[in-house]
Amino acid sequence: MTFQRARSEEQRDQRRRAILDTTAAMLAEMPVADVALNEISRRVGLAKSNVMRYFESREAILLDLLDTELRGWVADLEHTLPTVNGTAQGRGDALAATLATSMSTRPVLCDLISAQAAVLERNISTEVALRHKRATAVSAQLLVGLVTRVLPELGPDEGYEVVVVTLLMASAAWPHSQPSEALQAAYAADPSVAATHMTFADVVRRTLELTISGLLARQPAERPAPAVST
């Protein structure tokens, strides 16, 4: 892919889109740790210095993709969340399962989240950090709305706690769910070692079940339970 010099805002937007699309395609082939700016430049057909006219660093590109992935996940959840009926405990467990399973089907999102704090937020300017955190806040508030739609017993603060735990657990559990070749061989060689390995979805689901149960149990007695259909 080769480009002429971008002279209009539309051409600059096309260039940015090409860089993001190229990087997204790379993430389908390799983990975040292996995505290098030099390779992005080569694949998009631009000099590294030209790529940096549009994004200040590799991390800025990946944060932009993380924001896109997060928005896409939230949009999909609108159609897959459980129906608001049954007991609060049952709805909470269903919500936990839906959040965990839906994240497990988005490996790029999980890989980006797992690299967010330790890697992606380290080589960026204040401007990029603000743009990223504001975009994340919008997605988080949409998620809070979905959580409280399923569990109206929880207020916005408790809904936000569910969202925070979901993202933090995804960040922690994803690397552990991607064992190295040596660990895979160890699991194959010793069933007792293999038994200690939990899948990503199982870890996130169980943690969310316990978090939601705890939040429901801590609701003030004076807060009337909302009416739900059965």
Automatic annotation (TrEMBL):
Q: Which GO terms describe its molecular function?
A: DNA-binding transcription factor activity; transcription cis-regulatory region binding
What is this protein's record name? TetR/AcrR family transcriptional regulator
Q: Where is the HTH tetR-type domain?
A: 13-73
User: By its UniProt entry, which InterPro entries does this protein fall under?
Assistant: Homeodomain-like_sf, HTH-type_TetR-like_transc_reg, HTH_TetR, TetR_C_34
Looking at the keywords, is Zinc-finger present?
Answer: no
Check the record and name the Pfam families matching this protein.
TetR_C_34 (PF17929), TetR_N (PF00440)
Query: Has the keyword S-adenosyl-L-methionine been applied to this entry?
Result: no
Query: Which residues form the DNA-binding region?
Result: 36-55
Recite the UniProt keywords alphabetically.
Answer: DNA-binding, Plasmid
